[in-house]
Amino acid sequence: xxxxxxxxxxxxxxxxxVSGTAPLVIARGGFSGLFPDSSKAxxxxxxxxxxxxVVLWCDVQLTKDSVGICFPDLKLDNASDISSxxxxxxxxxxxxxxxxxGWFSVDFTLQELSSVTLMQSIYSRTAxxxxxxxxxxxxxxxFTQTQPYGFWLNIQHDTFYMxxxxxxxxxxxNSSKKFVVDYIxxxxxxxxxSIAPRFKGTKTKLIFRFLGQDDIEPTTNQPYxxxxxxxxxxxxxxxxxxxxKAYIWPIDKNxxxxxxxxxxxxxxxxxxxxxxxxxxxxxxxxxxYSYDPVAEIMTFIDNGNFSVDGVLSDFPITPSEARDxxxxxxxxxxxxxxxxxxxxxxxxxxxxxCTDVAYMKAISDGVDVIDCNVQMTKDGIPFCLGSINLITGxxxxxxxxxxxxxSIPEIIAGNAIFSFxxxxxxxxxxxxxxxxxxxxxRLYRNPAYRNxxxxxxxxxxxxxxxxxxxxxxxxxxxxxxxYLAEKKGLDVVGAVLSSxxxxxxxxxKTQKVMIESTNSSVLVEIKEKSNYERVYEVDxxxxxxxxxxxxxxKTFATAVIVNKASVYPDNxxxxxxxxxxxxxxxxxxxxxxxxxxxxxxxxxxxxFLSDATVEINSFVTGAGVDGIITEFPRTSxxxxxxxxxGLGKNTPAYMSPVAPGNLTQVISxxxxxxxxxxxxxxxxxxxxxxxxxxxxxxxxxxxxxxxxLLPQRLGxxxxxxxxxxxxxxxxxxxxxx
Length: 737
Fold this sequence. Notes:
The protein is α/β, with parallel strands linked by helices. The longest helix is centred in the first third of the chain and has 11 residues, at 189-199.
């Protein structure tokens, strides 16, 4: 490419790129994680949302009249509508000795393919852009229309095309006379070695592509794993290798990382560049990455031991962020104090919520504030748990207490086993369970730790927090106070204030105390009895709030929590616009915290490109929220440390907030989701409540039935850990069509 080279510094077996070009970002088929692979929109978005030196990848197929096209697969029916255009032209051919049925480019001229349009081929991705009728592009078209910094041609099936009288070799030689081809890769050893003499002394680099370790290289009949042992020979005709990421960081059958191999160091010792493939934000990641694709990229380019020379990704924005914003951050870098990062039940994305280990994980991740959602036991002990329903977060349905299930509609719909039905001693005997909010997509959380840790009382929580100097405060949530006081004789507000007083929080000034509630009556009473900060949670989605309503909130609260949808409403996971909620509340000097942030890509709008960092950045720099409430604190903490914040006009595109509504403008009219009614405006009637009732005197019993009850009696499903499987999930989109 002639833009410099990666220079590695050897020091105690550690290598770092220290000058020249950083690891390449290679966009497979453009931004194929959103738009149909190899479409004009995919290539254009890759240029807009990636580093300036992004390399565009084209999988080359040949037509019947020897024209090279960019298409992701040998079979055209995998990513186009050809089966409905040419219904009777399905054929079966031998591909590397295996019969394959479908529609093949060798049976069609370029003219015949002009009526065929590209479609999304991966079911976990939106099909809303299939109606845009993106045409199949020639290799020449892609280069001419995009003028990429780097152009990479992948030749996957030279042998197949030779069998049909077509020559990839001739195509490449003719193409190299018309435009610059920076990289040519192929998994066929004989083909790559045969063209090497013709590209010797040119800017074009030849890259040998490794497929699965047990896959057979078609021209030598050797498994690729054995070819990896002969890098000296590969060096005679290639300048680099492209390997699946699992060659470098293997993953076991349970989706946990194994120790890295020496393949990167081995390649570099032979003078070979090494590129890693198979990066995709919406495909299985190791649980070690906590569903954060930036964290995955970082292990390949900034792990303290080695760095690959480039990564091949369907979502090039992610390696762009990782390379330019997150890698090699100095320890002495000044880190902004905003946004405030607040845990949700501790690090509940990685450990069972509200357990000692969840809080310790959040603290070690660098969270600012840890939270306790206070529940009350039968004997009046306040403790931390995400829900008043013990079924959520514990194994209670598998114990003798399962027969305590009952229905209290004013608290929760359906049957539940309420915390106030058991004593603290009984609850301590329950086993915590990690939450799996996206199990319907077969996305599960950290199964090795699914029952780790123990539940803790509010007093234990406060002792834990007070001893951690890295914390700036605690957030204590109080719900159902009126019901508990009137029906159960439990004073949750008094219990919280007493615990805080006993822990010395009423006299210390090191850590701030925030009391959260969806009930204004709770916060009014807290204001009357303490000087703690008060956080009002708006538990419904809203598009705005009346001035009089905000003035009312201001009388009892110092901050407000709103749902993400109240900031950026969406329709079928496409952002519609931005509301006025955040600026309205902030205009009254109310801090605004947004909830709830998760790393799983199905929790994010398509606009955020299946990347948790893109979502967080949009809420912080786009919407201007003051705080983030998250199940994965580490992702937000790392975001706050990145080097691309505070650059003003120099902020790169891949660290700019999304433009809500822009992505829907690209969808063809017939594919647009139906119009959605706007959210309501928050009124005073939504906020005002009568004072909390007096605490009733209730006679308590200690009998607890001992006979077990099967989970089916409760209409509950007991979740077991399952292997990760794919389900379904932008960015500042300038008009690109």
